[in-house]
Write a structure and sequence with these properties.
With 219 residues, the chain is α+β, with helices and mostly antiparallel strands. The protein contains two helices and nine strands. The chain has helices at 2-59, 155-158, and strands spanning 62-78, 81-95, 108-120, 132-136, 141-142, 169-176, 187-192, 207-212, 214-215. It is globular.
Length: 219
């Protein structure tokens, strides 16, 4: 009887010891899993940060300083088009080396950038980048903006009756200065040719607005 009690007691101790070892092993495994999860999470965050940084470097046009400008120029209409000129800025800087600049000048450039919002009451009209012309006070003329630095205009996106088109379609046009200097710019003339119908008939008069540009902070 006494031997039987010793045997039962020994078996109980062995079971408790095994349970204790398993519990400790499980805690160690859980701790290792938590560490692995943290490493994976940190790696994912790092990878995402690197991706975001690479995306910024890939798609950023470059670093530029605004030298002169004018904000809230006004709203103008021609035919079914309503156009609000948000800002005109004279900028200087260098293009990002990753930016597709096979036809753009190398090194430092100066350019005029115009930001607008646009809506149209009609679709199936002709209104493209070629409708935006600009002249500086020094006499430099631009028959159209630089396409690689401007919005690819799609009038369907500006059509107010479209189910997918936004109310305000943001458009940017840019003109690289070749003869004019930013310091000598005092005014630009922004000439927007009226849209035409599918037969080429003009739908209204052109927009023609003189826009003074002043040094940043002096407005």
């Amino acid at each position: 009887m006494k031997n039987l009690l010793y045997i039962c007691l020994s078996i109980s101790l062995l079971i408790l010891s095994a349970c204790g070892d398993n519990s400790e092993e499980n805690e160690q495994n859980m701790e290792m899993q938590d560490n692995d999860s943290k490493v994976e999470q940190d790696q994912t965050t790092s990878d995402q940060d690197n991706k975001d940084s690479n995306d910024d470097g890939m798609f950023s046009m470059g670093e530029f300083k605004t030298l002169k400008g004018k904000n809230d120029v006004g709203t103008y209409e021609t035919g079914p088009i309503s156009l609000t000129i948000k800002s005109v800025a004279v900028k200087r800087g260098e293009l990002n080396e990753n930016y597709p600049n096979d036809r753009l000048p190398e090194g430092e450039i100066e350019f005029i950038e115009i930001l607008m919002t646009m809506t149209s009451e009609k679709d199936n009209i002709n209104f493209t980048e070629d409708n935006f012309q600009l002249t500086t006070n020094s006499g430099e003329n631009f028959s159209k903006p630089e396409g690689l630095m401007s919005t690819a205009l799609n009038i369907d996106f500006a059509y107010s009756g479209s189910e997918t088109g936004p109310e305000d379609y943001y458009v940017t046009v840019a003109y690289i200065l070749e003869q004019s200097k930013a310091e000598s710019l005092e005014e630009v003339n922004f000439h927007v040719k009226a849209p035409t119908d599918q037969s080429g008939n003009s739908l209204d008069k052109d927009i023609n607005v003189d826009i003074p540009v002043s040094s940043t902070g002096s407005e």
